[in-house]
Amino acid sequence: MEEYLERLEELLRKNEVSDEAYKRLKAEYEGKLREIKGGAETEVKAGKTEILEGTMVKEEG
After folding, report:
1. What is the pLDDT of residues 6-40, one digit of tens each?
2. What distances in angstroms separate CA 33 from CA 2, 15, 28, 37, 58, one per listed residue?
3. Distance (Å, rounded) from C-alpha 23 to C-alpha 11?
4. Of 26, 32, 37, 56, which one has the greatest count of Cβ atoms within 10 A?
5. What is the spatial distance between Cα 45 and Cα 56, in angstroms, rounded to a whole number?
6. DSSP letter assigned to residue 37
């Protein structure tokens, strides 16, 4: 997604995309990027929880 944003910026600088299209696409790409990054953070947090729970079980057993 970050590559798409960079390319979009380049197209705007070259006047190869309208301001309206630029704004619409930028919002779409940034939204998808937030989803991707948010999903990765959630997976990492879930993984840490599982690891911590697994460690706690081993210590008790």
Report:
1. 999 999 999 999 999 999 999 999 998 888 888 76
2. 7, 24, 9, 6, 38
3. 12
4. 26
5. 16
6. H
In angstroms, the CA 3 to CA 5 distance is 5
Q: Give backbone dihedrals phi and psi of 40, rounded to 5 degrees, phi first.
A: -65, -40
State if pTM tops 0.85.
no
Instruction: For the chain, give percent helix, strand, coil, nearest 5.
Output: 90, 0, 10
Cβ-count burial 23-33 (b if 16+ within 10 Å, e if not): eebbeebeeee
Give the model confidence (pLDDT) of 42-59 as tens digits. 555 555 544 444 443 333
Per the rule left: phi > 0, alpha: psi between -120 and 50, beta: everything else, 14 is alpha
Structure tokens at 56: 């706690």
